[in-house]
Design goal:
binds ligand LBFN2T5F; single chain; isomerase; DAP_epimerase_AS; about 40% strand; Diaminopimelate epimerase; about 280 residues; lysine biosynthesis; 2 domains; Diaminopimelate Epimerase, Chain A, domain 1; 17 strands; alpha+beta; diaminopimelate epimerase activity
Amino acid sequence: MAIEFTKYHGLGNDFILIDNRSSSEPVITPEQAVKLCDRHFGIGADGVIFALPGENGTDYTMRIFNSDGSEPEMCGNGIRCLGAFLADLEGDAKKSDQYRIHTLGGVMTPQLMPDGQVKVDMGIPRLLAGEIPTTINPANEKVINQPLEVAGKTWDVTCVNMGNPHCITFVEDVATIPLEVIGPQFEHHPVFPQRINTEFIQVVRPDYVKMRVWERGAGITLACGTGACASLVAGVLTQRCDRKATVELPGGPLLIEWSQIDQRLYMTGPAERVFTGKID
Ligand SMILES: N[C@@H](CCC[C@H](N)C(=O)O)C(=O)O
């Protein structure tokens, strides 16, 4: 059976999107996803995203496999791509510019903006150690500027769950961080029982930061939407950032706002269709 797919990216964080609306289980296994994501022997992507029927009164459900076949709860760049993909699939039948999407990390709401960007209500960040999850602190305490030994060095880390888990550390110069060496050591550190996404942040101004990321299950990527949101939260909690800032990633900028009114995170950025194809 041939399966149609569309390749999208959000700032170079790239995904294979599959119309899975006629079934509540992904039509591709995690093992097949690993093969499709391979950049030499497959299509090449950071993950495979499925558009499934909505659950609990939502419009649709998003599920995603990382390029290593693991299943994360959420993906920020991916949900912008999913919003654009759904609008394409619905075509003239589209009734709204906004979708309520069920994910394993909670309900997220991407909205297609008139300028082609996608703005997403990413929900309220969770900050307790037990919610990350991490054993750095007792389960009912936050993890803000806590020392963590990784690769023979002590890093001050702040942990934030944006549906998926993030560990943020602030550095002088992101360009000097040997991501491919220390990224895996953060990801597999025993204090993170479900592994971790790790963001290194250089604060240029309170409203402009540079970020590099090592993603759980995908390694170095050009952008991470949930990571950008988690990093802004960490920047506010440690008095380094304004509540609204541009996060500059290797693939380009995301605008992130942590609303004082409803305490929710809002992420605005692009979602680009690249090509369509068929998997035999
Ligand atoms: N790139 C994504 C995050 C994808 C999931 C992540 N690798 C995880 O395992 O949590 C984003 O844009 O948020």
